[in-house]
């Protein structure tokens, strides 16, 4: 028997939101069915990527679910309402280490980014970021992202985990075009922890 569930992981601290429609198999009754389900879940969990905060989530009662190939907490011991109210009355942090983080280096970094997004990157002040969109040649939306113009000589880009392969392929293809035209630009894909304050 198959049941359809919706699992949502919000990262509104970055102004981004992602959700995933998954299918959950409900095993038959009996011990053998439960053991098989546990083995399958354990095997599936072992193949998921883990953020640097994975152990912290588990130690604090995080209910871990698959999201975009990552094992991510969807809930802790408190109810969703208690968590929501805590965030509204105080603050919360979100582990967004699964998101694609990229540094764009080189003299032509602004021109490079502006060739792919709808934001005016050149007008950003140092250490100022903006929400924008990756677009294709026809103006269609590929993904949303945040671009920050740092005072350290690079642009810092954060885009969605669910689109990481597509986004990195898009940037690499454009990079090849820019390098072929003699432009000075390079990409550095990061594998670092990232948290967002909400």
UniProtKB/TrEMBL annotation:
Gene3D superfamilies: Aminomethyltransferase beta-barrel domains, Probable tRNA modification gtpase trme, domain 1. InterPro entries: GcvT/YgfZ/DmdA, GCVT_N, TrmE/GcvT-like. The glycine cleavage system is composed of four proteins: P, T, L and H. One of its GO terms (molecular function) is transaminase activity. It holds the Pfam family GCV_T. The keyword Transferase applies. Belongs to the GcvT family. Residues 53-196 form the GCVT N-terminal domain. It comes from the Eukaryota. It catalyses: N(6)-[(R)-S(8)-aminomethyldihydrolipoyl]-L-lysyl-[protein] + (6S)-5,6,7,8-tetrahydrofolate = N(6)-[(R)-dihydrolipoyl]-L-lysyl-[protein] + (6R)-5,10-methylene-5,6,7,8-tetrahydrofolate + NH4(+). One of its GO terms (cellular component) is mitochondrion. It is an enzyme of class 2 (transferase). Keywords: Aminotransferase, Transferase. Its EC number is 2.1.2.10. This is Aminomethyltransferase, mitochondrial. The keyword Transferase applies.
């Amino acid at each position: 028997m198959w049941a359809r569930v919706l699992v949502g992981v919000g990262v509104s601290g970055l102004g981004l939101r992602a959700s995933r429609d998954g299918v959950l198999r409900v095993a038959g009754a009996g011990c053998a069915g439960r053991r098989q389900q546990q083995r399958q879940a354990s095997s599936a969990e072992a193949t998921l990527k883990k953020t640097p905060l994975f152990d912290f989530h588990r130690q604090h009662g995080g209910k871990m679910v698959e999201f975009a190939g990552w094992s991510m907490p969807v809930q802790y011991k408190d109810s969703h309402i208690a968590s929501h109210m805590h965030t509204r009355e105080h603050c919360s942090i979100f582990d967004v280490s699964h998101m694609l983080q990229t540094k764009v280096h080189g003299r032509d970094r602004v021109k490079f980014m502006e060739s792919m997004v709808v934001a005016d990157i050149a007008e950003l002040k140092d250490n100022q970021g903006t929400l924008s969109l990756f677009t294709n040649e026809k103006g269609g939306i590929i993904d949303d992202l945040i671009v920050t113009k740092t005072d350290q000589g690079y642009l810092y880009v954060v885009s969605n985990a669910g689109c990481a392969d597509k986004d990195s392929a898009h940037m690499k293809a454009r990079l090849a075009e820019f390098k072929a035209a003699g432009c000075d630009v390079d990409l550095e894909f990061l594998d670092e922890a990232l948290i967002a304050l909400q």
